[in-house]
Amino acid sequence: MTYRVLVTDEVDPEGVALLAAEPLLQVDEVPTLPKDELLRRIGDYDAIVGRSATRISAELLNAATKLKVVGRAGVGVDNVAIDTATALGIAIINAPAGNTVAVAELFFGAVIGLLRQLPTAAESMRSGRWDRAQFMGRELKGKTLGIVGLGRIGSEVATRAHAFGMSVVAYDPYISDERFTALRVRRAATLDALISETNILTLHVPLTDETRGLIGKRELGRLPARSVVVNMARGGIVDEDALLQALTHNQLRGAVLDVFTTEPPTADHPLRTAPNLLLTPHLGANTVEAQRNVSRDVCLAVRDALLRNDLSRSLNVAAGATGEWPTLHGAMLVARRAAAVARAVLADQGMRAVRKLALRVSPDLAHASGPLLSAAAVGLLEGVIETERLNLINARALAEARGIELSVAETTELGATRGVEVALAGGMQQLAVAGTAPDGSTPRLTRIGSFHIDVNPRQTLLILTNHDVPGVIGRVGTLLGTHGVNIAEYHQARLAQGGDALAAVSVDGAVTEDTRKALLALPDVLTASIVLFRDE
Ligand code: NAD
C-alpha cells in the first residue's frame, strides 16, 4: 500500500527528500495552495506537511477522508483545528525542538540591538552622520533576566544569559525544582514576584487560556522602572495596547516584539511607530539551520506515523511515551487485546453496555499510562463502533462520549515489570483480563478473571468455560479439527479440581458462529466466546 503525502508552504528540501526516498510514499510538493484548491485536492492524501501558511480548518479536515497525519514544520499549531482532527482520529505532528536555538540567539541579538540602539545607529550612519553621544547603551552584565516559561527556549536563553553575567530568575509552575537547580536559575514563586525584580522580562510560554494577556497594564506597571519587555513567544501574551501605553509614557526602557496578535499587523498599526520598540516580523525560527531541523524532524515523524504506526510524536495522542514507542508497543497490544477479550466474554454473558474501563499497570509502565489507556479504549470499541477512524488518537474521546468512565492506576500486584490489566464493568458484572509484554518477547495474556492462562493473543482466541471433567479437551480439539480450525495454542486453567475450568485456545484464521454453536453443544462446555483480533 502506498501513501500520498502533500507538502505545501515550501518546507525545507532536506526533510522532503527523506519522505520521497521511501518507496511506499508518494510525495507531491506544491507551493501554498489557495483554500478552495486545497479543499478540492485534500481527499486524495494520507498526510499533509506544511508550515503556518496553510490553514488546516475543520472544513478541510472533514473533506480529508483519507487523511491520517497533519505535519507542521515548526512549533505553533494555531493554524490547525486540533479538536476536529482529534475527533476524526487524525494525528497532528509538529517539530517543537528544531528552532529552539534560533529563538534563543535572536533574543540576545534583539535585546543587545535595543540596548545599544543598533537599528537607529546603523540608520544614522547610512544617512551620513557620525553621532556617538546619542547612542549611549546599556550592558547585560549584572542585570536580572526574568524568564516566564522555562521550557526548551527559556532554558536555552537562561544558559546563554549566564555567559553574559546576568542574574537569572524564572517563573514556571510546571517545571521541577531539580530542573531549576540544574539550569542554575532561581525560582520565582509567582509571576508578580518575578516581575518585581526583573530588568529584562522575556516570555517563552505557549499561548493558552492561562497565558493570553498574561502581561497587561497591571504587570507592566509593577516592573521596576526602565525595564525591557521581550515577546518572542506568541502574539497576545503581552497586551499590545498596554505595552503601547507604557512605551509612550516612557515607563519602559524599551521592548522587543517578534510576534503579534494579528500577523502581520496593519501597515499603519501604532506599534510600528512606538518609541523604543524593536520590531521583527516573526523571525524567531527564521534560520537556515532551524528550517532544516524542523523539516527533518517533522518529515521523519510523519514517515514513522504512516509506515510504522508510530504516533509517539503526535500532539493529540495521549503524551508520555515519547522516545520509547517501539518498546511500548507490546504493552499497548496487551492493553488492547485484554480489553477486547473482556468485552467479548462479558458480551457472551449478556453484558454489552460497558460503563467502566479501569486500567492498572505495573510501576515501570506508569509513565505511559496515557497511551496504554488509549490502546485499551481501542480494544474496547473495535468491533463495536465503525472502526475506520477509530485509533489511538480518538479512542478515549469516543469511549467517554459513550458514557464510559475511564481510569488508570499504578499497582505492584501485576508484578514489577510490563504488567497490564484491563477491567471492564457494567451492570452487576465485571471482568479483568491481564497480560504482560516483557521486553523482546511476545506479548502474553496471563489471566482472565481468576483463571491463570498463558497465551499469545493473535488472530483469533476462543475462550471456553467448562466443567473440569476428563475428555473435554479432546472433544473440543476433535470438533475444531472437523470444522477445519487449526489450534496454535491451547491453555487450560482451573481454580479447583472438579470445579469450573477455562480454556484459552488461540487458533489460526476465523471461527464461524456455527463452530461456536457446535462447541456450546458439546457436553460440559458452558460458554464459548470468540475474539477476533483486528490488525495491530
Ligand atoms: P516549551 O513547551 O518547551 O516551553 C513552554 C514552557 O512554558 C513550559 O515549560 C511550560 O511549563 C511553561 N508554561 C506554560 N504555561 C505557563 C504559565 N501559565 N506560566 C508560566 N509558565 C508556563 O515551548 P518552547 O519550545 O520553549 O516555545 C516557547 C514559545 O515560543 C511558544 O509559544 C512557541 O510557540 C514560541 N516560539 C516562537 C518562535 C518564533 O518564531 N518567534 C519560534 C519557536 C517557538
Protein topology:
Blueprint: E1 3-7, H1 13-20, E2 25-29, H2 35-41, E3 47-50, H3 58-63, E4 69-72, H4 82-88, E5 91-94, H5 100-115, H6 118-126, E6 144-148, H7 152-163, E7 167-171, H8 177-182, E8 186-187, H9 191-196, E9 200-203, H10 217-222, E10 228-231, H11 240-248, E11 254-257, E12 277-279, H12 288-308, H13 325-348, E13 356-361, H14 369-381, H15 395-401, E14 405-410, E15 419-426, E16 429-436, E17 444-448, E18 451-455, E19 460-467, H16 472-482, E20 487-494, E21 500-507, H17 513-521, E22 525-532
Parallel strand pairs: 1-2, 1-3, 3-4, 4-5, 6-7, 6-9, 7-8, 9-10, 10-11, 11-12, 13-14
Antiparallel strand pairs: 13-15, 15-16, 16-17, 17-18, 19-21, 19-22, 20-21
Helix pairs in contact: 1-12, 5-7, 13-14, 14-15
The structure holds nicotinamide-adenine-dinucleotide.
Residues 75-76, 96, 99-100, 103, 148-154, 171-172, 174-175, 204-208, 210-211, 232-234, 258-259, 282, 284-285 line the site of nicotinamide-adenine-dinucleotide (NAD).
Can you tag this structure with a few keywords?
536 residues; alpha/beta; Rossmann fold; 4 domains; seven-stranded parallel β-sheet; six-stranded mixed β-sheet; elongated
Describe the model:
- With about 525 residues, this protein is of the alpha/beta class.
- It folds into 4 domains: about 120 residues, 3-Layer(aba) Sandwich (Rossmann fold), CATH 3.40.50; about 180 residues, Rossmann fold (3-Layer(aba) Sandwich); about 130 residues, 60s Ribosomal Protein L30, Chain: A; about 80 residues, ACT domain (Alpha-Beta Plaits, 2-Layer Sandwich), CATH 3.30.70.
- The protein is built from 17 helices and 22 strands.
- A 7-stranded parallel beta sheet has the order 8-7-6-9-10-11-12. Strands 14-13-15-16-17-18 form a 6-stranded mixed beta sheet, covered by helices on one side. Strands 2-1-3-4-5 form a 5-stranded parallel beta sheet, sandwiched between helices.
- Strand 17 and strand 18 form a beta hairpin.
- Helix 14 crosses helix 15.
- It is elongated, with a radius of gyration of 30 Å.
- About 0% of the residues have low confidence.
- The structure holds nicotinamide-adenine-dinucleotide.
- The site of nicotinamide-adenine-dinucleotide has 32 residues, from helix 5 and helix 7.
